[in-house]
Amino acid sequence: MPHPLATLTVLVEQIARTQDPTAIMETIVQRLGELLDVEVCSIYLCTPERDALILAATRGLSSSAVGNVRLAMNEGLVGHIAATLSAVNLADAPSDDRFVYIPETHEMPYHCFLGVPLLHLRKLVGVMVIQGHQREPFSDEDEAFLITVASQLGSTLYQLHRDGKWMSKLPDSSPYRHYTGIKGAPGVGQGRLWLIHPHLSLADVKESMTSNPAQQKSDFSDALAAVLEELESGSGRLGQHLPADVRALFHVYELMLQSPELSQGVIRLIDGGATAEWALKQTIDEMASAFEQSSDPYMQARSEDIRNIGQRILNQILERDQQVLEAPDEELILAGELISIADLASFPQERIRGLVCTSGSTLSHTAIVANALGIPAIMGIEGLEPELHRGARIIVDGNRAECIVNPPQALMKEYKRMIDQEQRFMRDLDRLRDMPAQTQDGMRVKLMTNTGLLADATPGLQRGAEGVGLYRSEIPFMVHDSFPTEQEQYRIYSKVLKAYAPRPVSMRTLDIGGDKQLPYFEINESNPYLGWRGIRFTLDNTQLLVSQIRAMLRAHAEHGNLKILVPMISRVDEIKTVRELVEKAADALKRDGLDVTIPEIGMMIEVPSAMLLLPKLAPYIDFVSVGSNDLTQYLLAVDRNNPRVSNLFDNMHPAMLVALEQILEQSRHLGLPISLCGEMASDPVAVLMLVALGYDCLSLSAYNIPKIKLLIRSLNRSDLLPLLEQARQCSDETQIRALFSPILEKLDWSTDLRQPPDANKPA
């Protein structure tokens, strides 16, 4: 019996050298068949809809059966394994009642049967099967070995299942590709996929192919000419001031750019189907390797020069790729690893119809921005390689966290109908802008907006916000190339306070760390969410906090509607120190002749210790705001950005219900006004629970205010109270959601899709 670890090492090494999904599966079944000395080894994978299993690879069964054999869940022995998630080991499979004979497999001669489920992070990927001629079950050692191998290969096969590439090799496979990820922002959009490039080094370029070699060759030629022009103008402009050896280096670069090895090598690879970037990387690597193998130290050093040249050409290719917008009014779906605020700002907002990111989570800043702008977004899509689909038509379904590449016309038409319905519905909600968010039995809920993501803070006013519940002051810090001055901050804060006056504006002090990094102040930590972030960072950099407080107080002196909100409080001495700094800053400004008053000072309850210490914190604060995103993360010990556990993040968890109830009761007892901000305030089911609990101030993205206002105005709180009592007895979030869902269904509001009711039906 082979050792499992040794076998896996060999398999992983072979798979790492294999790019084609069919070849990967063929390698697995061939190698395992040989190692186990069995006649048959097969892999069945779930369809994208997870309603059937398809024979994806086999060693021993008929090759013509691959892609043509389909079993429903619980059909046959393979379907039984998928349905029960348990292994089956039989001496004579054909005699078993569950056995289904499929003639095209030619499997009648085989009797012994061993099948195990393929799983990845609790999700069924498929089934792995071995079969043989003998009429006795496989040994315990064989079964244990196959289970071990299957558990380790589950991740690899999951990637193939997620990206759907294996389907393209099967007969009559679907013409389009379907990918799933994590919900970033709700809604539906469709358009042309536009690739957002990060700052990409030549070493990081991945294999990618093109269907338009003529365009790729044109891009490469233009980039080559641009770099040559840069060098010629640089050497001409600076030539008289440069030493001879540096002038010679310019000449060397020019010779390298004009070398036939470079241009012909890249063009040859593009003609073979490679993109300009991938062709450039391969050619530069080959040329640099030739220099490195030289025995002459001077020639060896030229390898660095050729890589430098390659990087310059790559930068030009990527720049051109971003600048060329073929149709100025075409709707776009932006795709990339993680799309930044700067990326969004470089496109007209009316053209952006969706975002798809291969990393990130529901609570990444990209998702928060998308929510604020009402742009559908999907985060953490595994298997999607956007560079392979540049220019393709794509549908983004943020409600289901799904995207479809090259969808058929019928599907596009149906999604277009949904998009039109949503737009009509949102236009109809304009009538609610100046109406209160009040339940039908009289509970009044203030709806505030979260802002600070964009220079324009007015969308909240346009949507009927009653103030700002959370102004994220870190955004001006994140888009600068250095810490903004007090004067720069003052101008920004004054503009926001003026726009909303006399409505209150809660400005959060600088909250960086975790997934919010400053480009000019890098923080590297092994566990950033438990590290140097929020108030911990600003107290350790007191001059930054004082500068920010002074800027806020100066703006408050003009408009009088500021409330200061302090993030990540976990200790009494933290909020005590902040209040002292505010008082000192106010005194200093008064001495300078400014008529300053101290605004209300509040804290965010995000860390469980703040919840438990609330009576001791109360003397130093005037109000509290529950940060539902971080509080959920810390209560459940779930890293919301970790795809392995992000599915466990749910703010309807019973622990959150207990925490929210306790915080509300304590705040009322202590006479502290309380609000709640975060994505929880945009979740219709969560809003039902919050209204039942008695939360009467919510802060959410401007785009979602009209929908939540309509929901609240459609409710009777009295109908929710019995459900709240039952929710207290629930043991998981699924049960709690199931309790409140019928209320939304009664209102014709889809709980699963987080969509509004049909715009054509009365609310």
UniProtKB/TrEMBL annotation:
Its cofactor is Mg(2+). Keywords: Cytoplasm, Kinase, Magnesium, Metal-binding, Phosphotransferase system, Pyruvate, Sugar transport, Transferase, Transport. InterPro entries: GAF, GAF-like_dom_sf, PEP-util_enz_mobile_dom, PEP-utilizing_PTS_enzyme, PEP_util_C, PEP_util_CS, Phosphohistidine_dom_sf, PTS_EI-like. It catalyses: L-histidyl-[protein] + phosphoenolpyruvate = N(pros)-phospho-L-histidyl-[protein] + pyruvate. GO terms for molecular function: kinase activity; metal ion binding; phosphoenolpyruvate-protein phosphotransferase activity. Its EC number is 2.7.3.9. GO terms for cellular component: cytoplasm. Its main location: cytoplasm. The keyword ATP-binding does not apply. One of its GO terms (biological process) is phosphoenolpyruvate-dependent sugar phosphotransferase system. It is found in: Cytoplasm. The keyword Oxidoreductase does not apply. Pfam families: GAF, PEP-utilisers_N, PEP-utilizers, PEP-utilizers_C. Belongs to the PEP-utilizing enzyme family. This is phosphoenolpyruvate--protein phosphotransferase. It comes from Marinobacterium lacunae.
